[in-house]
Amino acid sequence: MKKKVLLFLMLFALYLSLVQICVYADDYHFRNTKWQMSVEEVMAAEGTYPIYDTNEPPLHAIGYKDNVMGKNVYITYSLLNNKLWKTMYILNEKYTNSNLYISDYKAFQRILIEEYGKPTSEDIIWKNDLYKDKPQQYGFAVSLGHVSYRTVWKNTNESNIFLTLKGDNYKINCTIAYYSIEMEEEVKKWKASEQKSKF
User: What pTM was computed for the model?
Assistant: First the structure.
């Protein structure tokens, strides 16, 4: 009986983790937030004070730590003119075996496919073929910047979603980035004005 209860609790905890990483179209775009929320609304949705808060108008960024699918992650929220337009999960695990980053990437990919269906594109991009014939060294190849992984879902739940694994100088980053489709033009205009201001 105790084993059944323990198994139920473990499965329920896993379910809660999956809910965190997946977004339900009828409710939210990312976790408990919706695009164009204000920073005050985002902080209220998270229910706790961020670990960092950077405000350089018109940009504002806040970040949190959490555990998703048993993995430590950073969570970032980016706002333009106090409207949420980008969010991210950033894997915060340190492995001595670099292949474990690829395993995490594939685990995130499976969950996202379950939630959003077949991706728009899925790419493994080799810039240097040195380790291409040595699968046991793929993680190391990522850390050198020799190969990167990317899976994309376009026009999904009013969002574009990018799952990325890449590295350089022996460091590896695995991220899931969500972008507001509705905010695309406003973000493009701001970036263009920033470029013009440099001349």
Answer: 0.85
Residue 194: per-residue pLDDT? 86
Query: For residues 18, 22, 28 and 29, what is the CA-based torsion angle, rounded to 10 degrees?
Result: 150
- Bridge partners (DSSP) of residue 68 are 71
Tell me the C-alpha distance between 184 and 164, whole Å.
20
Buried b (16+ CB within 10 A) or exposed e, 183-195: beebbeebeeeee
H/E stretch holding 184 reads helix 184-196
Query: Considering only CA atoms, which of 4, 66, 81, 5 is closest in space to residue 30?
Result: 66
* Boundaries of every domain in the chain: 2-196
Quick one: 134 exposed, middle or buried, by C-beta within 10 A (0-12, 13-18, 19+)? exposed
Query: DSSP 3-state assignment of 14?
Result: helix
Region 162-182: mean pLDDT is: 98
- What is the three-class DSSP state of 87? strand
From residue 15, give the alpha-carbon distance in Å to each of 21, 71, 81, 146: 10, 14, 35, 35
